[in-house]
Structure formats: C-alpha cells, structure tokens
Request: fold
Amino acid sequence: DAKTTQPPSMDCAEGRAANLPCNHSTISGNEYVYWYRQIHSQGPQYIIHGLKNNETNEMASLIITEDRKSSTLILPHATLRDTAVYYCIVRVGYNQGGKLIFGQGTELSVKP
Amino acid sequence: DAGVTQSPTHLIKTRGQQVTLRCSPKSGHDTVSWYQQALGQGPQFIFQYYEEEERQRGNFPDRFSGHQFPNYSSELNVNALLLGDSALYLCASSMNAGGNQPQHFGDGTRLSIL
Reply:
C-alpha cells in the first residue's frame, strides 16, 4: 500500500495561507490522494481529493505535482477554526469506497 | 440531511466482555467502513461492508466482527475485550457509485476497557 509522509507539525498565522505538504512517492497510477482533517474529539472531516489535476472546492485547493509523487493542500485564508490534524491519504481500492490508510498527519496550529 | 451517526458516544466495559457499536450511514450511502483510532494515532481500517457482506478487512483478529442490515446501517462487535481495545471507533459511509466517492465519518464511539 502506498504510504504518505507529512511533517508532524506546522504553524500558520491567522488570515494567511496554510500550505501543507505531503510526499507519496510510491503512489500507483489509479490511486487518488485524499485529504481529511480531524479536530479534537471529532471524526475526520473530508476536505478534498484528486488524481492528477489540481482541484479546488469551498474549503481548500489541492495541488498535485506532475509526477504525482507529492501534493500540497492549501487553505487560502486560515482561521483559528482550521487548527486540526490534517491527514494526507492515498486511497487503496476503487470499488465500494476503498480503504483509507491514515498516517500520523500534520498538526496545524493557526495562531492569532 | 443527517450525517453519519454512531451510538453510543461513550462506553465503559471490563476485560473479557463483549460490545456492540452501531452506525447509521449518511442518507444515500450504501457502504460502511469501520476504523479504530488509538490515542495519538491515526485511524486504522478494520473492515468494510457493502450489500450486507464484508468486502475488505484490515489486520484485525476474528474477535472483531460486523454486520450490515438491509437499510445499510451497520454494527461492529468485539468479543473477549482486551485493555488494548480501548480506542475511538469510527464509522464512515460512502456511495458505491463507481469512481472515488469520499468516505464521510461519524464522531465515533469512545470505548474504555477497565
């Protein structure tokens, strides 16, 4: 199963963009990159996912390198409520939703 | 539109007992996955149910079993509880509509083993 590597922690100033990197050098051609975040005492929250093209939704943008070996999640204007653990996941399996293999994630602290 | 709901939210058991956790998927979802999250760790995949059958399984012993009902809701059963089973148990649901449909998680059941 493809693994991901993320920095254990990052800080970001409120109102600034938060850029969270992820390495997934062993990703296979049909495996998607997913991002979730988990706020203390809650279940993981889906943010965004992509295969090879950059993606954007109301929460964030996902930039995937051309060789697909790394990606960056961008929160354009971080707020204090964005403080959470962010998980970059390479999803294994195509049908029935696949299984998610979580790593340790990046603990993002947004500071005023 | 209700999201994924899990019950109970907290549970305390003793070693050797058995426990059943319940999950109602998000409306329109037909696939349910279960994860175990130990303190300070990321969630670990236990198994996934679709069409009332176990479709995938992670590296968990047979003490962990599940069931999916015709209304797509699901149960996770754990027998002969060990201290190490203390964790947050998360349920996630998704649509098996082909392609990569995201899994949506509930807030979990916190299980404590004494």
In short: The first strand of chain A starts at residue 9 and ends at 13. Chain A is about 0% helix and 45% strand. Strands of chain A lie at 9-13, 18-23, 32-38, 45-50, 55-56, 61-64, 70-75, 84-91, 106-111. Chain A has a mean pLDDT of 91.
